[in-house]
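Hi team,

Filling in the usual template for the complex we talked about on Friday. All components are listed, including any nucleic acid strands or ligand strings, so the model treats them as one assembly.

SUBMITTER: L.P.
PURPOSE: interface mapping
COMPONENTS: two
RESIDUES: 414
SEQUENCES:
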Amino acid sequence: MTQISKTVHSPSRALDHRIEDMMGRLLQAGVVLASSVVLIGGLFYLRAHSGTTKNYRTFTSEPASLRHPVELFRLLMTGDAAAIIQLGVLLLIATPIARVVFAAIGFAVERDRLFVAISLVVLAVLIFGLVHVA
Amino acid sequence: MSLLLFTVLVFSGSLAAGLLGALTGLGGGVVLVPLLTLVFHVDLRYAIGASLISAIATSSGSAAAYVREGFSSVRIGMFLEVATTVGAVAGAFLAALVPVRALAIIFGVVLIYSAWLSWQQSRRPHEAAAPINPWSDRLRLSGSYPDGAGGEHHYTVDRISAGFVTMFGAGTLSGLLGIGSGAVKVLAMDRIMRIPFKVSTTTSNFMIGVTAAASAGIYLHRGYIDPGLAFPVMLGVLIGSLLGARVLIRARVSLLRTVFTVVILALGVEMIVNGWLNKL
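RESULT (copied from the run log):
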């Protein structure tokens, strides 16, 4: 619910806005970087496979080299186009994670222990999702 | 179909999906997944993987613009992201256990429900003012936004536990179906927690990226994310949704909303029928 300004103005509000502004820029930069990598990888991918067809009708899962970061980097060294796209995807996944790290630092600067803790919980869940092996 | 033609067509379709998603406020995934499965005959798991990636791109790509307006709340977002990320991880694990037919049917039901929510939002009644919830200040979730006349409009947050639980559900749907589930997030904040609509929609946009990132790693490990598909889908939806956000300022939104609501309803029914007949 809303009410017209009568309550005490929170002193952290201005800082909150600055943190949000920097977070917005961080996210935008991450997306621009990830999209550029995906675009470059995609163009190489098209050049390498232009005449071929690919079947997406049946699910076969991706090869291990495209699913695990360590092997992905090995493939990347050979200049493989699919690996470049997956690197862009990894950069994209890392972008919101970087935002959570940044928010945690921002709350620490504000000495807001509750929200530092909340940010770290979110970060822990994100890292679990990224590194766990099924 | 040659790979080049396929890529160009998927890119164009994704661009349209991103455009519609931005105009309806439902996000690109709700149009994209039916498009990929029903029109391009892509396996639902690949479609979900590509869609999830595009949700991260759209959410993060438009964040800077939303922040500038000063409506989004980093605190409400972060607090509720505890629920959405845990839900998203649970949803991603569930996705491996649920048969593809059942996924398609769930997707169809969610589509129809989202369409109904989006249609309702444009004609909702005003709620009577409720007493201020003390936990809003205790959890430091109360905030303010510019009222457009140089002042600040203060708001508090209500029914926090109910909102939190609904957010867990939104996260689970996101992880299960590879969509941003913005409609459910806005429902939790706007309807349940009584957060002002503008604050709800912009904060929801912020949260979609973090929520999707929680399950994206699991999808990647499981091989749901194909580079040949992720490339045109991610770029197409991103460009489409950024264009859509610009059009939105000028277009006659209510008419567009009605038209696209019908489109999404039809897609929902088709997903259910195809899932039922096992044709996906």
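MY TAKE: Residues 13-49 of chain A form the longest helix (37 residues). Chain A touches chain B through 79 residues (CB under 8 Å).

Thanks, L.
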